[in-house]
Amino acid sequence: MAPRAQHCAIWFGTPGTREQAMFAAIGWPLRLARAEAARQVGMRGGDLVVAVVDLRDADAAHIEALETALAEHADLPTLALVDADTGEDPARQHLLSLCHARLLAPFDAGRLEAALASLLSSPRRDIASIGGQSPAMLGVRALLHRYADVELPVLITGESGTGKELAARALHDLSSRRGKPFVAMNCGAISPTLVQSELFGHERGAFTGAATRRMGLFESADGGTVFLDEIGDLPLDAQTNLLRVLQEGTVERVGSSHAIRVDVRVLAATHVDLEAAIAAGRFRQDLYYRLDVLRLQLPPLRARGDDVELLARQFLDTFRTGHAVQARGFSAAARQCLRRHAWPGNVRELLNRVRRAAVVAEHALIEPADLQLGGATPQVVALDAHRDRTERDALVDALRATGCNVSASARRLRVSRVTIYRLCRKHGVSLEAFR
Ligand SMILES: Nc1ncnc2c1ncn2[C@@H]1O[C@H](COP(=O)(O)OP(=O)(O)OP(=O)(O)O)[C@@H](O)[C@H]1O
């Protein structure tokens, strides 16, 4: 069989001689990577690479290392080698849910080759637009992959500018709905009197000014995804109709009692506390339960560690491709300012500051003054941000090391279980992401 140099399989761990021989026989170069050192796996652009994980005899430590490796390479198509017992063990089951395909032992070279080929031919699932390698963002990326093809609503929470809309788009792009429309609406940006008509459409003459019949957003997104940003601002009457879409899969245009069937997945986002809105009578509890089936919490930028510099670099590089600017990088002092700033406006603020700095910088390196961060961040904020980051990293490390065992994590950090749950909420860490 002709060797296919452009194909390559990365085996996280150590393959047996039988498996090595099979890969050689089907012409697939095999690269070995220690699961614990997954970050070191580099790939050349254009390579067709798949990951292979053997779950048949994996012990707890190897499973934990594999989970980290797969989270770090969430975009890599992954084949799991399993046997009949694999599905019985919850830890392996979770790992399996992160893989894109599985091959049941015993298998021969022919079946292995077919499994690898079908993995490569399935559409490439890429969420490269979402930058960041911090533990917090690896958790988010893993959840995006996990939620993408589940036909349930996702409630995306996080401070303003953390990337909620970007995450919604990624969920759509990763899902089997990706060829269909992605329609976004900011519920707070539309006048309350027009929201119903925007979302559900109207019949001619339904209200003053409705000169023609109009299709609503849900109908126009049929087969695809509707993203409702600032869902907390949706007026109560529109909330009732949204509930019908979620419960019955139908809409009624304003001025009509005829139910029209629609096939849409609903994603919603909020940066306000919906439970407080429920308590204040501004949001329907039943709708909240319908929307909050899968939760994706985006961490604030100040909790993403080195991602700040990584994103700043990425934003500068992108900006430079379209604009003739002097700036090619950041001075050490500017990098320190980036690390210290508390980023109340999150990624959006970083993006805008970097673009602005790129324009005003008169030298090759952007300086603190270009970022306008020089004295703007009081030291006390820097310290808080630093504490936040350390606290979050310790939490994530403990959850990883204990296989997401809350009691064991609490013992490890010498805090109560209640504190672990509180810290998870505070830092937007989803236990789901580690299970
Ligand atoms: N991880 C990321 N990598 C690259 N760009 C990002 C990332 N997160 C956010 N951005 C960019 O930051 C900007 C703000 O993101 P987005 O609009 O998705 O935030 P948001 O949470 O929906 O904000 P708001 O709550 O104000 O609606 C966008 O330009 C987006 O492309």
Count of strand segments: 16
| CATH homologous superfamily label of the largest domain | P-loop containing nucleotide triphosphate hydrolases
User: What amount of the residues lies in strands?
Assistant: 5-15%
Overall morphology? globular
Specify the biggest β-sheet: 5 strands, parallel
Alpha-carbon Rg, integer: 24 Å
- Span between termini: 41 Å
Instruction: Decide which structural class fits the backbone.
Output: alpha/beta
Low-confidence stretches: 1-5, 376-380
Q: Write down the overall mean pLDDT.
A: 84
Order of strands across the biggest sheet?
2-1-3-4-5
Model description:
Keywords: ATP-binding, DNA-binding, Nucleotide-binding, Transcription, Transcription regulation. This is Sigma-54-dependent Fis family transcriptional regulator. This protein is α/β, with parallel strands linked by helices and about 425 residues long. The chain has helices at about 15-25, 60-70, 90-100, 110-120, 135-150, 165-175, 190-200, 215-220, 235-250, 275-280, 285-290, 305-320, 330-340, 345-360, 370, 380-400, 405-415, 415-425, and strands spanning about 5-10, 30-35, 50-55, 80, 100-105, 155, 180-185, 200, 215, 225-230, 250, 260, 265-270, 295, 330, 365. It folds into 4 domains: about 5-120, Rossmann fold (3-Layer(aba) Sandwich); about 135-295, Rossmann fold, CATH 3.40.50.300; about 305-375, Helicase, Ruva Protein, domain 3 (Orthogonal Bundle), CATH 1.10.8; about 380-435. The protein is built from 18 helices and 16 strands. The strands form 5 sheets. The chain has a 5-stranded parallel β-sheet. The two termini are about 40 Å apart. Bound molecules: adenosine-5'-triphosphate (ATP). Adenosine-5'-triphosphate binds near residues 130 and 164.
